[in-house]
Inverse folding.
């Protein structure tokens, strides 16, 4: 995590109820240590004190003791009830949504988180929230079960197809915190995560009104591709990836479902991002969601620049003539790879 | 007690006495046997094969997690590896291991019976296990399954392209093996006890198996129904679990855990029975609070059916359901605590020997203690919201399943090995292995509690770099654990070739299984024993000739 907290090996806490969960955790560690020390000390003491001193000895018969049995049934029961009550209170706080919340919608999909703010902003695998505001996430999924988990906030909830589940938190510390999918969801489950950015209200307002960066288009595009838009969860990763292979395709001929072919130029890449179902590459399912309304023109330019760079193209200037010359030999190999 | 008289006669050449192993050598004499002991030995071999296979998968998992990136295995293969590790270990090792091997071998002998009540059904259950296991292995060879051993819908029904139905069929068929074994044990315990073997003279091993059998016959049909529904949905597109078809994915979780939580008790209760035997016998002391241990097994079996919802605290069930299941989970902790305290008290004023089985039992106590206490963490619902589906859960159930069941199994195998084979193993290597398993296990799984609280989710092929150090500890521990597990295979098999003859009762213990030859004859006893002593009585009234045994041991001291 970002900064180390005072307890080593202990995660940062950054939500209004994180301390409650931690307090419960330390209470349970204390209870466990108490019982473990008693039992382990007794076992070792007996183990050494009453070790075999004579082969086949016949020690005294002790049948048991009702008072002792009642004692060590009653005490654990009472302690377990305190644990239950503590857990119940914390659980109630975690899962009872307060009144005055800012609502954000979350849709899980193999393997990305799509977030939409009330004001219309969309983001992928990232969640920007203001500090000190109660935030409610209303969540569902397009496919299988997922689970929205922010360890620093000490909360999570499953995301279930066909229904809405919700989660709330109030972030207490500005910073960057990990976001995970905690319910197994298939091939790229481990890649279905990102970051939660907790910002001061002023920074959050600035963010809502759009953000600029001074990266080069390729860098910016790579950032969008691997992090912000989650393209990499389907379009990178090797032979089993679900999306079409992008390396080395620029300027080449691509075979489409239905037998047509098209040259993979800037226009084609742009169209494929905004309207993926329009021209699907042979051998792939039309599963890609549309990114229309989620990427700005600037971001599209950056993405195109990055995808070109995957084919060894320099970026800004389009030069379709050069690759077309040797495209004839490379095209069948590509088509075979895509048709797998 | 003519059996007792034969205890200390020294070398039994076994020339005139045919035991269950020498009663026929053909393959047919094994495959068509009705002898519960031969069936147990065949189970022992089969279960061991699955355990080794599951262990190889575990090794692959730990190797992959040595580094943050998914480099050794790409994520698709990793998902199959952890799924198959789970399926094989749970359904084909943990559930059958102790009941089908040790229970099968010992339950009839311990109650003084010639065999189980239904010997043919017993053989049938072995064949069913083979068919179920074989189908599952076949599915793995075809390409395997990647749904996690929990088969959660709708991933398993609609999205996974792996061999879900074939593995499901294997598990489905295998369930009937459990049911038949449970049925056999219950009927046998009710009807075949020797004269004088009252319910409260039964060894606690038998009580534990009785409780286990109740769970087996009541719980297993539910998982069979669940898998059947899964198949119906996958094959006929009827909406049961998939919301796209009008079904409910949470329903699957309810049905699955209604069996699979009690299944945890199918795995742990028999092991608790073994531990009761080990601690009492190697302390040479009557077990403390016999009735409390016996009835706590029954209480666990009953309450075990009421806590399935604690697997679903964050799945979208209502807050109130979460609270009720949390409460019931806390209640079920009490009988487990009672057992631990009684085992500890049993050692008080005993005469404790440090033989291998006892070391395993002490290891069990330590690991089960941690497993049980961290169960309280997970039962406390507010805390579970944070740690569920993380490595905290992984560590917890390995402490219970490996620390509890596997250590109980290994302790039991070492304890009854002389009875099953007539040979003694190397005590030196036995102790080394018990200690390696304990140390390696803790090194493997303790760091995972910390990882879990830090938030590392389970079932991740790749993970953020800040988690690497603890994962390296875990993988290092796994290699120690692996060595500790391989050792017994070597010295136990070695003992068959050059082990010393064990004699009928190497530790001079009172249980009925020690009052017949090692290995026992086909019908267990020359003559039906009459029981006149209480369980775990080591004194004169048990009819053991202690003075004679002492003289013997002075002549030839045991290793």
């Amino acid at each position: 995590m970002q900064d180390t907290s005072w307890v080593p090996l202990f995660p940062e806490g950054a939500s209004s109820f994180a301390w409650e969960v931690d307090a419960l955790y330390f209470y349970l560690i204390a209870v466990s240590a108490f019982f473990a020390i008693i039992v382990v000390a007794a076992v070792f003491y007996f183990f050494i004190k009453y070790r075999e001193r004579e082969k086949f000895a016949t020690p005294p018969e002790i049948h048991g003791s009702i008072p002792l049995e009642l004692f060590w049934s009653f005490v654990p029961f009472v302690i377990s009830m305190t644990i239950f009550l503590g857990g119940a209170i914390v659980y109630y706080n975690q899962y009872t949504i307060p009144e005055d919340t800012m609502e954000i919608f979350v849709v899980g999909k193999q393997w990305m988180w799509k977030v939409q703010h009330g004001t219309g902003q969309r983001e992928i695998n990232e969640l920007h929230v203001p500090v000190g505001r109660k935030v409610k996430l209303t969540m569902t999924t397009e496919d299988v079960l997922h689970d929205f988990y922010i360890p620093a906030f000490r909360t999570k909830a499953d995301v279930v197809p066909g229904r809405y589940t919700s989660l709330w938190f109030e972030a207490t510390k500005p910073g960057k915190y990990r976001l995970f999918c905690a319910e197994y969801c298939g091939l790229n489950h481990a890649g279905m995560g990102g970051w939660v950015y907790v910002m001061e209200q002023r920074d959050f307002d600035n963010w809502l009104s759009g953000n600029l960066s001074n990266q080069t288009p390729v860098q910016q595009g790579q950032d969008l591709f691997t992090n912000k838009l989650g393209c990499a969860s389907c379009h990178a990763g090797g032979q089993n990836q679900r999306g079409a292979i992008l390396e080395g395709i620029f300027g080449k001929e691509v075979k489409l479902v239905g037998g047509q072919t098209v040259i993979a130029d800037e226009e084609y890449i742009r169209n494929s991002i905004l309207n993926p179902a329009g021209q699907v590459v042979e051998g792939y399912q039309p599963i890609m969601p549309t990114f229309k309304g989620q990427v700005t023109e600037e971001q599209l330019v950056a993405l195109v620049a990055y995808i070109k760079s995957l084919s060894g193209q320099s970026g800004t200037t389009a030069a379709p003539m050069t690759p077309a010359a040797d495209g004839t030999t490379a095209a069948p190999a590509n088509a075979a790879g895509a048709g797998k | 007690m003519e059996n007792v008289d034969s205890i200390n006669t020294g070398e039994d050449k076994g020339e005139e006495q045919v035991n269950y192993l020498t009663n026929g050598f053909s393959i047919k004499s094994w495959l068509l046997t009705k002898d519960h002991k031969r069936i147990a030995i065949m189970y022992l071999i089969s279960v061991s094969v699955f355990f080794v296979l599951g262990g190889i998968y575990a090794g692959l998992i730990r190797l992959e997690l040595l580094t943050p990136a998914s480099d050794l295995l790409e994520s698709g293969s990793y998902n199959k590896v952890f799924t198959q590790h789970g399926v094989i270990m749970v359904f084909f090792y943990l559930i059958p291991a102790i009941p089908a091997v040790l229970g099968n071998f010992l339950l009839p002998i311990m109650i003084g019976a010639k065999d189980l009540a239904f010997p043919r059904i017993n053989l049938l259950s072995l064949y069913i296990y083979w068919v179920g296991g074989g189908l599952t292995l076949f599915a793995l060879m075809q390409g395997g399954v990647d749904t996690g051993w929990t088969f959660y819908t709708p991933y398993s029904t609609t999205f996974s392209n792996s061999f879900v139905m074939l593995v499901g069929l294997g598990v489905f068929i295998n369930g009937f093996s459990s049911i038949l074994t449970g049925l056999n044990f219950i009927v046998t315990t009710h009807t075949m006890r020797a004269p004088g073997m009252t319910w409260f003279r039964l060894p606690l091993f038998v009580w534990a198996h009785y409780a286990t059998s109740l769970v087996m016959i009541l719980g297993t049909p539910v998982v069979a129904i669940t898998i059947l529904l899964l198949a119906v949905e996958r094959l006929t597109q009827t909406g049961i679990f998939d919301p796209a078809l009008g079904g409910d994915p949470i329903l699957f979780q309810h049905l699955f855990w209604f069996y699979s939580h009690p299944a945890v008790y199918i795995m742990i209760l028999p092991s608790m029975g073994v531990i009761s035997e080990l601690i009492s016998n190697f302390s040479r002391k009557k077990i403390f609070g016999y009735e409390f241990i016996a009835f706590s097994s029954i209480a666990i079996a009953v309450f075990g059916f009421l806590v399935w919802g604690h697997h679903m605290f964050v799945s979208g069930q209502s807050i109130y359901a979460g609270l009720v299941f949390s409460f019931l989970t806390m209640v079920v902790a009490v009988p487990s605590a009672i057992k631990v305290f009684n085992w500890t008290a049993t050692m008080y004023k005993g005469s404790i020997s440090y033989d291998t089985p006892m070391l395993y039992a002490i290891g069990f106590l330590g690991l089960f203690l941690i497993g049980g206490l961290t169960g309280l963490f997970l039962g406390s619902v507010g805390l579970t919201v944070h740690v569920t589906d993380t490595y905290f859960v992984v560590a917890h159930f390995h402490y219970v399943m490996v620390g509890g069941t596997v250590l109980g199994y290994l302790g039991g195998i070492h304890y009854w090995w002389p009875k099953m084979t007539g040979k003694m193993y190397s005590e030196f290597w036995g102790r080394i292995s018990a200690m390696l398993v304990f140390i390696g296990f803790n090194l493997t799984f303790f760091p995972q509690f910390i990882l879990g609280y830090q938030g590392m989710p389970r079932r991740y092929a790749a993970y953020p770099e800040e988690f690497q150090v603890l994962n390296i500890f875990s993988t290092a521990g796994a290699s120690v654990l692996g060595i500790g597990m391989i050792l017994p295979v070597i010295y136990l098999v070695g003992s068959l070739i050059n082990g010393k003859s064990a004699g009928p009762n190497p530790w001079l213990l009172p249980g009925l299984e020690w009052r017949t030859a090692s290995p026992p004859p086909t019908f267990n006893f020359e003559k039906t024993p009459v029981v006149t002593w209480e369980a775990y009585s080591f004194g004169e009234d048990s009819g053991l000739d202690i003075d004679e045994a002492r003289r013997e041991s002075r002549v030839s001291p045991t290793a």
Summary: Residues 1-7, 315-340 of chain A have pLDDT under 50 and may be disordered. The CA atoms of residues 131 and 291 of chain A lie 29 Å apart. Chain A touches chain B through 90 residues (CB under 8 Å). DSSP finds eight helices and twelve strands in chain A.
